[in-house]
Every structure is written in structure tokens, then in C-alpha cells.
Amino acid sequence: MRTINRLDQVLELLRRHGGRVTTTRRAVVRAILESPEHHITAIALTDQLRLTHPDLAPSTVYRTLDALCEIGVLEHTHLGHGAAVFHMTGERHAHAVCHVCGAVVQVPDHHFGELRRDLAAEFGFEIAPEHVALSGRCVRCRTTES
Amino acid sequence: MRTINRLDQVLELLRRHGGRVTTTRRAVVRAILESPEHHITAIALTDQLRLTHPDLAPSTVYRTLDALCEIGVLEHTHLGHGAAVFHMTGERHAHAVCHVCGAVVQVPDHHFGELRRDLAAEFGFEIAPEHVALSGRCVRCRTTES
DNA sequence: ATAATTGCAAAGTCTTTGCAGTTTG
DNA sequence: CAAACTGCAAAGACTTTGCAATTAT
């Protein structure tokens, strides 16, 4: 239920900003909202949507994502190598990526208290936790490797 | 003085690992060691070195950087969009990148205490501070923008 | 000598752009 | 109908790979 509402909210917002709601855009937004980890790359999104919309162009996906970012409902993060991941805004968490196996852990915002305070005090820098990409080794790789 | 020693240390290590020390490699290592912010992209490195070594190929730079990473003296970090930055290991700091103007702030390791502890406790995840790329807004852009 | 490195060119990945045709509001 | 969206193809940024010629050890 909540998902359906969210979908409509996003599309409505798009319309209000002078954008148009098309079958493709509806499908893109739905796919993002339903993506398992709540984050997905443009390429994965394209591949997935091609199953039902065979001639969807990558450029269309990128432009739709841009449009969503511009109205502020979507954000992207660069998780180390490879493609950026997109996720809806308001999900206040950072990503921690294992540089060995690529596993992604979502880190709740409240762990950033100290860092946020220190950076603001020392550098006047305001961190955006949802953009943050931490890097390190996950449990599995720590125990397996050494 | 210290820079010269460091250069020779690196080159010696390279030799010990079966690598060869060439004019090009010496120039690459020197340029990294002398790079103003202690981090530089492969492309910037190539452009800079081309001034004195006109037909240095990008691939040579990339391969040299790879070789240095493999012997453990160099690391790279993806700072959001664009090219990865390389820096010598042992510089225990993270980077905070302003997503408005691209400015980079170096964040000393000790600010990561809480985050490191929490991530280890909650997820078993071990963060590598020197790989971390924080994102947010720098002082200038905070005051200028809004 | 022989194994590593080099330059060049081609290819690969992710993303952006130009354009003519189609669709939405 | 006008403005926005679409697919396609081409280009762009960054990086990797193959190969024959060169060079360090």
C-alpha cells in the first residue's frame, strides 16, 4: 500500500515540476521503489526493465534518473569502482562497501554523530550521510582472508 | 631529504618484487610524492608528466600505478564522480569531498573512532579510513549557497 | 639473455549528448 | 499544439588489454 502511494507521490511531483508521466517513467520509479536493497545502478535498472520493455534505451533511464534527482526525490552515490547506485531520498543511511567482495552494508545515520560534529567544528564541513561511501572489509572477508 | 629517501625506498621495494626501475617509473613515483595535496588522479599525473616526457602513454601510468598498489605502497580512492585519486599508503586520513565545488578536505583518522567501533560491533565491518570518501558541503559552499 | 616495461591503438565500462520522431498535458 | 520524452547512434571520460619493440637486470 505504502509503495503504491509513494509511487504516485513521486509521479505527481514530477508532473508538478513540468515533467510528464509516461509508461517508461512509471516503470522506472516502480523498479527503484521495489529494488531489493533500496539501491540500484542505472545499468541494473535498464537490464531489469528491458525484460518487460525490450527497447528501452539506457539514455532514457539516465534521463529519467536525472529528472528524479532534480526534483529531489532521488540521489546517487558512487560506491567505489563501477556504476553509481541510486536510491530515494529520505533514507538516512550511508553505505559501507567491502573492497574485497563488494558486499554493501547499510549504516544507520546515528553512527555519524561524532564524525559530523568534528567535521563541522574543525573544517566547517557538513557531511551528507546518505552520500557517504565507507570502504573496508565485511565480516565474511575478514574471517576468511586472515 | 625525506622525499628523496622515500622515493628510493619505493623504487627499491619495486625491484625487490621483481619489478624494474625505469626513468618513467622514477618520474611517476616522484610526481606522486611531490603532488601538492598528496593525492592525484592518473590522468592529472599523465598530463603533468607529459610536459617532460612527451610520449608517455596513459597505459604506462596506469600500469605503473597498478604495480605500486600491488606492492602495497600506493592506494586509490574513488572520490565521487570522475577519476580515482592515488596516494601513498600510511597516510591515515580520509577524504571529504564537497559535492558542490569538488573541494577536498583531508580528515584525520582519529575522527573515526565512534564509527569504527560501531561498525565493528554492529556489522563486523572493519572500515579502512584511507579508502573512505565522505561527501557533503564545504564551508564556502555552505555559506554561499544558502 | 630473458623477463619486464613501453608506446600505440583498440576495446571496455559507465554516462552524456544530438537529433528526428512520438507522446503527454 | 507545444513542450517534453523516446530510441538510436555517436561521443565522452576513465581505464584496461593486446602486441611488437625496447630496456633493465
Task: Provide a compact summary of the structure.
Chain A has 146 residues and is an alpha+beta fold. Chain A has six helices and seven strands, in the order ααβααββββαββα. The A-B interface holds A 77-78, 80-81, 96, 98-99, 105, 107, 111-115, 118-119, 122-128, 131-139, 142 and B 77-78, 80-81, 96, 98-99, 105, 107, 111-115, 118-119, 122-128, 131-139, 142.
The outline of chain A comes out as globular
Q: Write down the domain tally of chain A.
A: 2
Q: In angstroms, what separates the terminal alpha carbons of chain A?
A: 46 Å
Name the CATH superfamily assignment of the largest domain in chain A.
Winged helix-like DNA-binding domain superfamily/Winged helix DNA-binding domain
Sheet with the most strands, sense and barrel status of chain A? 3 strands, antiparallel
Q: Report the uncertain regions of chain A.
A: none
Briefly note the structural class of the backbone of chain A: alpha+beta
What CATH architecture of the largest domain in chain A do you see?
Orthogonal Bundle
> Into which percentage range does the β-strand content of chain A fall?
15-25%
The protein's oligomeric status is homodimer
Rg of chain A, alpha carbons: 17 Å
N to C succession of SSEs of chain A: HHEHHEEEEHEEH
